[in-house]
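Sharing a chain and its predicted structure for anyone who wants a worked example. Both blocks are below, sequence first, tokens second.
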Amino acid sequence: MEPPILEACKKGKKPTNFYGFHTFAEPGCPISLHGPFRDNIRQFLQECAELEEYNVEGMPVWCTFLVLEKRGIVLPLYTVEENVKISAKPFCDPCRCAGWSHHLVSKRKYHVIIPMDDEWNKPLNEGVLDLQHHLLHGLIHCNGFGHLLIINGIEGGSNYLCGREIMDLWDRLCSLLHTRQITVEDLSKKHKMDLRLLNGVAYGHSWFGRWGYQFFQGSFGVKEHNYSRAIEILSSLELDQVINDCCQGNGCRDIGQIIRHYREMSETNLTTIRDLFRFMLTLKSRDPPGRNSTTIATFTYSSKILPKIALWDRPVGKERSMKCRKFANVAANMDSRWPVRRLQNVAEVIVEALKEKRAANKAGSCGMTRQEARDAARLHIGDTGLIDHVLKAMNNVIVGNYIVRRAVNRSTRVLEYSIQDLKGGTRVDPIMIPKPMMFGKSVYFDVTYLYKNVLQCCYSESNFVKLAVQTIMDSKHFVKDWPFRDEADDLLRFICQVMPSSIDLKTELTRDFPPAEYIVVPLHATVGDLKLAVQSAMRDTYCVMEQLLVTDIVELEGVDDEEVLFGLVESGAQLRVRGSGLDWGTNLRYEGGADTWTVRCKCGALDDDGERMVSCDICEIWQHTRCSGIEDPEVVPRLFVCDTCCTSLAPPRMQSSYNFEHFPASALPRLSELDMGILY
């Protein structure tokens, strides 16, 4: 594949500057910035980017050209400025889910985007802010708070950039621009493993932790000390005990063989599962052992874990020669929270879609990509998780009178599903035993095997370990903080907080105080200059403060406006500012939106955490569906009454029966009420 070359270069519109991808935004390269983010981003765009001749939905676009030095490839780093007053989405969902609903709506958002490889030669199109396949998409409000929304490396479809390289660039850029806090919702996976769980056990932090991102907010009432305790519990599992527990629990001797194999390879003693995972992950980039190595061994799978791994290591090209299984038998042996009847129903819907595709395209391709099959099934089934679960198992399976196969289309090189009529001579086996596998050759296969069969299966009956795993999985929001820096130069820097009036406190300010702002003034500035600087910065940053008139600085009351600040107040001090003209009547007040709501869930959550919620039709208080006994695949009932309102309406004896018999086990008091005690 030829390296992409920007159309601008082909047409003779040569960019003014090119910057090395791996050195861009290092200290002093290409510029040094000393102000707050709202000023730095403007200087950055002026000096390091070029304004494009088009806009996207009325938003101006700048482009910075970066060069992958070793490959000689030029790629675009776009910056899109979104004005919230004309935006279709003025509020910020990531702020709401990260606990920043109380932040005031900033007037501008800056979207930093690196498109997918095959889009480097194309201009940005409408809807670019909603796409999920960018290599990088970061959003930073003009007050310096922001969110890392998307990062995709090699596994995400890039041919040139890995996730680590993209994260390095993003981190350098945030440091250069003096961002204040950046959040990320960690849903990263590798080889179908959740990295926040794998890295948490191996290193004590998420994958983003290597760049300084720390626990910020958990879902379902999980607090930082619960998260830390869960990490400690899992990482300290002793390998000898794991071997004993797993062998007794499901007869999986292969786990013991894998552990002993890597113990023999290690020069240091591997005692805990953290030691093992960390050692294995250090081996992942090394060459596999040679063909003559005597350390490679084979193993077979126990029957209890067979359905989970039966499809793992099959070469796609050989699948057509494999035996077929009835999907009903496959579904019965799948580790699934859905009943077999629902799994079979989804399989039948997919087969009907494949039949329609075959009938409509008799002369062309009769296959459907995973996304096409998924979209077709969604027309009849609303639960995408259920659809994905079934699609994973649909390979060489029999549904009705058809065989469903999965193979790579040679012309498009895309994995497709297709159907064939079931012939009388087709050999059908209820379960196909996979060939013996080799461990030691693929470290990632071995890690994945241990991840699934130790962390997710072996201790499935242990509330202690199961709760720790669930706690880490419910800890998705992480944050990196760039602390305030008062540099040794000829500038004065202050942290200024606008104080609302007593009337505003009672009637308008219904949420926590928003964060203070960084203000920079020259060394010779006066008190009056500082007031004007604060006023200008607040007007430039927040919609609610467009008409702000600063009248007083609490710490400098009684001091004339002509007094020079130097020697009067120390640089880096926190100052409280009073004024008038705050427009609390505008809808653009809080990033969480104009609506007010109350969250009070039995798990302990008091704010929106991004998980699915339901509102009580009596008290109108929101709580998690999961904590209320409504499973994810289930539709929220039209009429929902919370436990508290049920208690007030129903006699105590009836309520007791309702709590423990009507609801499934998942609806009983959640982590913070019963089980969280072991994580303190």
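Comments welcome. The chain has a mean pLDDT of 82.
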